[in-house]
Structures are given as C-alpha cells and as structure tokens.
Amino acid sequence: MGLSAQKCSTEQPTPYSLLDSDTLHYQKADQRDSVQTLTLAFVGDLMCHTPQFKYAQTDSGGYDFLPAFSQVQPYLESADLTFGNLETVLAGNTAPAYSSYPIFNSPNEYADALKSIGFDVVVTANNHSYDKLEAGLIRTLAELQRRGLQTVGTHYTPQGKDTFCIVEKKGFKIGILAYTEFSNIPLKEEKKYLLNHIDTSTLALDIEKIKKAGAEVVIAHFHWGYEYQTQPNSFQRAVTQKAFEAGADIVIGGHPHVLQPIEKVKSASKATLDSGLVAYSLGNFFSGQHKRFRHTGAILNITLEKNNLQKKIRLKSYDFQPTFVFQGFIEGKRQYRILPTFAAPLVASNQQPDLSKANFSKIDSLFPYLNTHDKKQFFESFQDATQILKQQ
Fold first, then answer.
1. Mean pLDDT, the chain, whole residue set
2. Strands 262-266, 172-180: parallel, antiparallel or unpaired by DSSP?
3. Cβ-count burial 99-120 (b if 16+ within 10 Å, e if not)
4. Do residues 111 and 143 touch, judged by C-beta distance below 8 A?
5. Percent of the chain with pLDDT over 70
6. What residue ranges in the chain does DSSP mark as E strands?
7. What strands lie across the sheet with 172-180, from one edge to the other?
8. Residue closest to 378 by CA, chosen among 333, 341, 353
9. Pairing relation of β-strands 172-180 and 250-254?
10. How far, in Å, CA of 366 to CA of 358, rounded?
11. 14-38: b or e for each residue (b if 16 or more CB lie within 10 Å)?
C-alpha cells in the first residue's frame, strides 16, 4: 500500500468523514524567515468519570465542560500545537447511556470543550479505545474530526494503518504516532487494524514511513506502564530506547494516572533533533480520581527552533506547568477545576524547585473556593510534581 499523509494542518482544519478514510493532504506553509520557532504543549490523560459529566450537566439537560478548564485554557491556547490523550469514547447516548470505569462513554460536549480550549491533536490509542467496540471507536473518530480535532492511534479501515498524521505549522512538519500496550477489551485478529498496539518492529517501520511521507520531527505517544507508579518500568524504558534508536525525537507517555520523570536524552543518528526528550507519564490532566498523585498532572511545553539556512531543527527549550484537579464546591455547586500550581513554568534544567516563585501568596485571591484541606492538597500536589518531574 502506498504512503499518504493525513491533513493534520491546523492552519485550516477541515474534519473528514468516514468516506474519506484516513487519507488526507496538507498544505505547505510559507518559510519566509531563516529562523522559526514552534511551541508544543502536551498534557496527560483526559478522562471522564461519572462525577465529571454529572457536574458538567446544565439545567437544559446538556453538558458544559468549559468551566473545568477555565484556569488552564490560556496555557493550552498559547502553544502553536496542543496535544492530549482522550481516555474515553464518544459512542453517543446509547443504552446504557454515559458511563465511566470500567466502560467509558462520554457526551459529545466533551469534544466541544477540548476544541474550544485549544487542543489540536487528540491521541485515541489507549486501553479504553474499544470500550464501546468498533461502533464506539469509529464514532469517536468521526465526532472529534467533525470538530476539527486531528486524531492519531485509531483507524476506520485497514488502509488507515498506512496513513500518517503530519501536522504542518509555521514551516514545521510534525509527525505523530500513537500506540497502546493493551486494550481492556481485546480486539479480534481481523479487527486489530482499528487500534495501534505497541510493537517495536512496527514502530521502527512506522517511523521510517512517516519520515518518507514528509515528517521532519517525529513524536511517539505510548499508552503503557503500571498504574499509580511514579517510576517507569522496564518495558517503558525498553520501548523508549527502541523508539529513539529508530529515529523518534520526542516520546510522550500516558496510562499510569500519575506523573513520571521527564528525561532529556542524546539523540540517535536517525533522529532530527539534536536532543531527544521523553515524558514517561504526564499524569491525569482531568479525571475524577482523588487519591494523592492521581489528581496531579502537568503541561509539558517544548519549543523547537528551525534554521532554514542550515536546514536544522533543534530542541530550543522545555519546561512544565504542574496542575491540580480540584473537586469541590464553588458558589454552592459541586464543580471541577484544573488549577495551575505555579505562576510561571519551571525551567526543566538543573534548577531545584523554587517555592518563592510559586503563586502560593496569591492562592486566596486566585482560588477563593479552596478550603484548608484543598490548600493542603494543592501544595502537596505542587511538591509531588516538581520532585517527580525533576528526577533525571
């Protein structure tokens, strides 16, 4: 089968239908300046437990998830490209209706919110992708793409396995691949094309193919590891090494539902960037899980720099913005809010967390609805995030 690139251009996002399969085209961007920069933002798992959609229900019977993201929306919108892992499906209000663990199914308004707050690319390959079987997986793709959100990791047809998502933005061509370690509901052999599973041989071929299709920088997203463990396991490390050896530039992980370290690595000969970066798990960005570490996430910001004269792209910088998922009462109503726990991103170098820069002194004015217990969790979440993410 021939190779083709999906239309993952965020300049003029045009959602595609089932009839279009996965084959799209992208337009070339102007390259007027000799040096250009591109900012990327990555978040962790976007879940939707029952309290999340119940708290979002409106008086008219619909759903409004926007308030939950109001405090972090500026961080997501400020990036040139924003990525997240959707760990639920949009199978429609079927019988049974909307649900969460162990079989997730969320309202379409969730996708509306993701588009409105700045997401560009949504990873759809995870252990819950097949919760509502083939019909739910396909409808999820259709609903996301109908809203102009690009998807990666699941497919409509067998031919979709040979098409690749390449986003062109500001003169950069960013290729995105996504895979899951397993599916809670196993797929029959003849249906495995629907969902990308981690296989290092396939991964190496896909990286080679996506580069031939035009990708300059390759991002590999993996749904992997042990839940609730703050350190990557041997499988995560082994797959990461294989990904970098095959030419991946950035590796992003999800599934543990807690943060795991971010590491800068020396690029392999097949890579484009001068330095590679792996974030083994970015935790829960939005979920109904409450225990320590599980309500903590992070926005990972990466800046790439392209020198058109030298035809080189480098990792200019990266930093992270820790986040905390608050669940409680605001103006007498139970609500969720994703709260940034730092006034400005921490520079992910060798610095130690500097508590003097945190917005703790402003917490009462910024988040007046936090009670004493909430504040304790907020501070604890910040400290957990900085300690885990600074481990290199």
1. 87
2. unpaired
3. bbeebbbbbbbbbbbbbebbbb
4. yes
5. 86
6. 4-7, 35-46, 81-86, 121-123, 150-152, 163-169, 172-180, 217-223, 250-254, 262-266, 275-279, 284-286, 296-307, 312-330, 333-340, 346-347
7. 4-7, 163-169, 172-180, 217-223, 250-254, 275-279, 262-266
8. 341
9. unpaired
10. 12
11. ebbeeeebbbbebeeeeeeeeebeb
119 phi and psi angles, rounded to 5 deg: -70, 145
- DSSP alpha helices (H): ranges in 26-103? 50-55, 66-69, 73-77
- Residue identified by tokens 């993701």 is 114
Residue 23 pLDDT greater than 70, yes or no: no
Dihedral sign, CA of 95, 98, 102, 103? positive
Block residue for tokens 């759903």: 63
Residue among 109, 82, 80 at smallest CA distance from 93: 109
Distance in angstroms (rounded) separating the CA atoms of residues 181 and 161: 17
pLDDT at 235: 98
Per-residue pLDDT, averaged over 2-30, amounts to 38
Cβ neighbours, 10 Å, residue 202: 14
Record the pTM.
Answer: 0.88
